[in-house]
Design a protein that fits this description.
Blueprint lengths: L24 H14 E2 L8 H5 L5 E5 L5 H9 L4 E5 L3 H14 L4 E4 L3 H7 L6 E7 L17 H10 E11 L2 H13 L3 E9 L11 H8 L4 E8 L4
Parallel strand pairs: 1-4, 2-3, 2-5, 3-4, 5-6
Antiparallel strand pairs: 6-8, 7-8
Helix pairs in contact: 1-4, 3-4
The protein binds S-adenosylmethionine.
The site of S-adenosylmethionine has 23 residues, from helix 5 and helix 8.
Length: about 230
């Protein structure tokens, strides 16, 4: 039987399912015309951020930026930082490109690939000032929990890619995912949780409200926010 073949390679467990999602004509045009300006191809080579952004500035990575509105807003509000966004959902990428062009920003680049692969293969060690993971897919069913992006190896990978003094910022609106995150952080020696807040959308940490946060609030969910500082192991 095929699945008993020991030479057969296991497919990695992904934290997303590729949804085809309908591209609007303006999103399609944005992907065609604006990708050369903001897009970065996925290749198994480390990025040179100074060459990529044509300057030397601290880099903030946002994983799973959705439609990108929050990402673009942060890039507009913090011109002294460079922003790198990773997303696999094509309509979201198109939406983000349009928002970036409308905002006229130059401190933003996007990658269309699995963030785990990008972190492993393209992000140099100790190169990021900050990683934002806002409302990652919660995979609420128990049999799907293994698909949650936040797992011990992912946490270690994030710590490896952050510079000394860098931080990981997480938010969720799923109580069960929040409990899982609490357990992960408590068991990790790579991060120290310096801020934790549970709220109703009124007191986020230092981030704008996101589309999925608004959706969660409409459904009566609470919101959890963490700031996790990279531990100094020296
Ligand atoms: C629940 S949505 C949240 C979107 C946005 N951050 C917000 O708060 O509105 C999660 C997003 O993460 C993306 N995603 C999930 N796993 C990913 C991965 N491994 N690499 C890149 N994007 C991923 C999904 O495509 C989806 O758009």
């Amino acid at each position: 039987m095929a699945n008993q073949d020991p030479t057969r390679q296991r497919r990695p467990i992904r934290s997303f399912v590729r949804r085809t999602g309908r591209l609007t004509s303006s999103q399609k045009r944005a992907l065609d015309e604006l990708w050369p300006r903001y897009g970065v191809e996925f290749t198994p080579r480390l990025l040179d951020f100074t060459a990529l952004f044509e300057r030397c500035a601290p880099v903030v990575l946002e994983i799973g930026f959705g439609n990108g509105e929050t990402l673009v807003q942060q890039a507009v509000e913090n011109p002294e930082f460079d922003y790198l966004g990773i997303e696999v959902h094509e309509p979201g990428l198109g939406h983000c490109l349009i928002a970036a062009q409308d905002a006229g920003i130059s401190n933003l680049r996007l990658i269309a690939a699995d963030a785990v692969d990008v972190l492993h293969q393209q992000i140099p060690p100790t190169s990021l000032r900050r990683i934002n993971l806002y409302f990652p897919d919660p995979w609420p069913k128990k049999r799907h929990h293994k698909r949650r992006i936040l797992q011990p190896p992912f946490l270690n990978l994030c710590a490896d890619r952050l510079e000394a003094g860098g931080s990981l910022h997480i938010a969720t609106d799923w109580a069960n995912y929040a409990a899982h995150i609490e357990e992960l952080l408590a068991a990790s020696d790579r991060f120290v949780c310096s801020s934790r807040r549970e709220h109703d959308g009124d007191q986020p940490l230092d981030r704008p409200m996101t589309k999925f946060e608004r959706r969660g609030l409409r459904q009566g969910h609470r919101i959890w926010d963490w700031r996790c500082d990279k531990a100094d192991l020296s």
